[in-house]
Structures are given as structure tokens and as C-alpha cells.
């Protein structure tokens, strides 16, 4: 492949700037890293929603005047169930909304990474090996992530 040109001879980059192989692969790996980071955050937030639900399930059958303790900024604060329950539910809803936004952003990033992969014909080593075995030829000199 000619340096500074993407496979197929088309110039890549922003503003007419050409990208070399390392930049193309680096950008792709960065996109995959972003997607994986979002997946981890989504998993973490799903766990928080689950924990909030356990608290809600525990507090709902209790009398509203019963004492309840809540951790606020590292300080344990005494309140009543009637004061704590709405706050916990509101926090849970906020986390759910954030989860929806993150899921949408993750899907967009995954689509963007897939488009980048298609545009520059990037293949993982496994994909390149499988393709070469299917064709019965040595691994081609395509970009490999």
C-alpha cells in the first residue's frame, strides 16, 4: 500500500490530509477502546440500578415515619423512609436515563467503527487468516488491526 493513501488509492483524513496505515489502525483501535469503555460504564450503571431497586424493594413495605439512614457524600444521614424513598427512586430514574443515553452513544460509536473498518478494509488477524484459508492463498497485505 502506498504510504499516505488508504486502500484502494483514496485519500483519507480530515481536510484533505492523508492518513497512513498506523494512523488508520490507531484511530480504529481508539474507537474500539471507546466502545469497550462505554460497555464497562453501562455494566457499572446497570449494577447501580439493581442496587437502587433492592433499596426501593426493602423500603416500600415499611412505615413512612420509620428511621432510615442514607449515605450522602460519605456522611451517614438519618432521615425517614418517607424522605429517603423518593430520593432513591429519583436517583434510580436518573441512572436509567443516563443508561439510555450511553447505550445510544455506544451504538453510534459501534456503527462509526464498523464504517471505518469497511472504508479502510481493516481486518483482525483472525479474519485475515480465515479469509486466506478459505481462498487457499497466503494472508494478503491488507490492514490488520
Overview of this protein structure:
- With 145 residues, this protein is mainly α.
- It has a single domain, classed as Orthogonal Bundle (Helix Hairpins), CATH 1.10.287.
- Helices cover 61% and strands 8% of the residues.
- It has helices at residues 21-59, 81-119, 125-135; strands at residues 67-72, 75-80.
- A two-stranded antiparallel ribbon has the order 1-2.
- Strand 1 (67-72) and strand 2 (75-80) form a beta hairpin.
- The chain is elongated and about 75 Å long.
- The chain starts with 20 loop residues before the first helix and ends in a 10-residue tail after the last helix.
List the defining traits of the structure above.
145 residues, mainly alpha, Helix Hairpins, 3 helices, 61% helix, elongated
Helical element count?
Answer: 3
* Global geometry: elongated
Identify the CATH class.
Answer: Mainly Alpha
Rg, Cα atoms, Å = 25 Å
What layout of secondary structure does this protein have?
Elements: H1 21-59, E1 67-72, E2 75-80, H2 81-119, H3 125-135
Antiparallel strand pairs: 1-2
